[in-house]
């Protein structure tokens, strides 16, 4: 009887251990995830913008994705220079371009992550419509030096009143946003996603790739330079999120 009890105990412990091991092996499985990230790209500044993406698994290797990117797109020849007061403004710039990119795509799992270790690698493809918000770039300039009078208006590099000597600096934050115009277009991107997190419910990692953003009409950002309706860019995104 004692021997049988020992055998039952040993088998029970073995089954518990196998169940625990199986749960650990399966602990990284998930059905959906939501991430947000900070983007750096070759057409943006120190921070290019922000990324949001919702994904759900279609099968063991493929995820369906819905994304939104909000970016500040800059002209390649933009340069910040100092005004007579020591403040800075962007020489020649006449408009901002804020891009809202809606994306639908697929993530293909190339390398599946082991529990509590390793890296999950995905190939990323997505495309969709873009809405460009073209907002005027405002500067503050002197009207009468003797009376220290100034005026805020959209920067026009061809206007004699907007010479470097008369510019005091940039306008207020988001000034002129109410005079924005919309441009319609589309975008497509391809890249690789590297997920580094060790907790099933959290997502941490980075994504690198190429994105092409194009609009139906040419967008004038810097009137004194060549402008285009096509904006190719290389990007790097740090992201964080959750999954279940």
Give a description of the structure.
The protein is mainly β and about 240 residues long. The protein folds into 2 domains: about 1-30; about 30-244, Porin (Beta Barrel). It is about 10% helix and about 55% strand. It contains 1 helix and 13 strands; from the N terminus they run H-E-E-E-E-E-E-E-E-E-E-E-E-E. It has an 8-stranded antiparallel β-barrel. The protein has a 3-stranded antiparallel β-sheet with strand order 9-8-10, with no helix packed on it. Strand 12 and strand 13 form a beta hairpin. The longest helix is centred in the N-terminal third of the chain and has 24 residues, at about 1-25. The radius of gyration is 27 Å and the shape is elongated. Mean pLDDT is about 85; it is low at about 5-25.
């Amino acid at each position: 009887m004692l021997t049988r009890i020992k055998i039952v105990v040993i088998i029970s412990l073995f089954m518990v251990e196998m169940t625990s091991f199986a749960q650990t092996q399966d602990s990284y499985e998930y059905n959906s995830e939501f991430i947000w990230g900070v983007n750096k790209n070759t057409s943006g500044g120190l921070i290019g913008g922000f990324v949001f993406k919702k994904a759900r698994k279609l099968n063991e290797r493929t995820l369906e994705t819905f994304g939104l990117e909000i970016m500040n797109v800059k002209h390649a020849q933009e340069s910040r220079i100092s005004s007579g007061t020591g403040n800075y403004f962007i020489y020649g710039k006449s408009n901002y371009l804020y891009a809202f990119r809606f994306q639908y795509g697929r993530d293909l799992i190339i390398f599946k992550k082991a529990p509590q270790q390793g890296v999950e690698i995905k190939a990323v493809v997505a495309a969709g419509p873009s809405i460009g918000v073209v907002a005027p770039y405002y500067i503050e300039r002197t009207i009468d030096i003797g009376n220290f009078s100034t005026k805020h208006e959209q920067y026009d590099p061809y206007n004699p009143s907007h010479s470097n000597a008369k510019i005091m600096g940039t306008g207020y934050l988001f000034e002129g946003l109410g005079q924005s115009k919309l441009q319609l277009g589309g975008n497509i991107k391809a890249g690789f996603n590297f997920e580094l997190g060790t907790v099933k419910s959290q997502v941490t990692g980075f994504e690198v790739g190429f994105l092409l953003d194009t609009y139906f009409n040419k967008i004038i950002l810097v009137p004194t330079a060549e402008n285009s309706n096509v904006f190719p860019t290389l990007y790097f995104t740090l992201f964080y999120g959750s999954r279940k």
